[in-house]
Amino acid sequence: MSQPSLLSVLFSFVKRDIALAYHQRAELMQPLMFFIMVITLFPLAIGPSPEILQRVSGAVIWVAAILSLLLGMERMFRDDFNDGSLEQYMLSPTPLYLIVLVKVLTHWFIHIVPLVLLSPLLALFLNMTMSMYFALIATLLLGTPVISLIGAIGVALTVGLQRSGVLVALLLIPLFIPLLIFATSAIDSASLQLPYAFQLGIMAALGLFTLAVSPGAIAYSLKVSQN
């Protein structure tokens, strides 16, 4: 397949997933509403102290981001499995690993953009400084693709199961602990006006490694689930 036609085919998957997300706005809003509720309810539980809120703000936002992304991950391949599109992807001349990579990155983009747009308000709500906010955005942009790529492997393995969202979360949450540690460490360093390039570098390395390994693992998991 020539390069232009390959790009057009992959772009068609992007348009299809965006159109499906638009038509399923209720499901699209669930992770976002969960993210907002966790962050708004947390200060009510620990009190309005600005110092305490600032100290825990990075951890609160990151835990809420991980849980909200996992909440919306179940539907990543669900519709394709139910309508038979997944089998057609496997028979397509387009490599399956490219198809799943495009679908995962589109899913990540659809869910992360609302989180980033809401982050200034939530950062203000949790009394984050400007340097902490910049560190938060950097860690979200570097770390959340790792969540989507690793999470897609779990989703692919359980795509044929009903109500697999809880199972996927239980399997994957331990894998995100190192990512959570480096992300919150970067935000804490920013709060103390310390450099945090090391933490961002580790997160970028995790992202590149996951980007290289995950598409093949997702494609193989989908083939196993179909058999």
- Global mean pLDDT: 83
Main structural class: mainly alpha
Radius of gyration: 18 Å
Oligomer class = single chain
Give the total of domains.
Answer: 1
Helicity, as a percent range: over 70%
Give the end-to-end Cα distance, rounded to a whole number of Å. 27 Å
Which outline best applies? elongated
Uncertain segments: none
The arrangement of helices and strands along the chain is: HHHHHHHHHH
| Approximate strand percentage | under 5%
What is the tally of helical segments? Answer: 10
Number of strands: 0
Note the main sheet.
none
What does it look like?
There is one protein chain. The protein is mostly helical and 227 residues long. It has one domain (3-226). 83% of the residues lie in helices and 0% in strands. The protein has helices at residues 3-23, 25-46, 50-71, 78-82, 85-91, 96-125, 130-157, 165-172, 177-191, 197-226. Helix 7 (130-157) packs across helix 8 (165-172) and helix 9 packs antiparallel against helix 10. The longest helix has 30 residues, at 96-125. It is elongated and about 55 Å long. The two termini are 27 Å apart. 35% of the residues are buried. The mean pLDDT is 83. InterPro entries: Cyt_c_biogenesis_CcmB (IPR003544), Cyt_c_CcmB_bac (IPR026031).
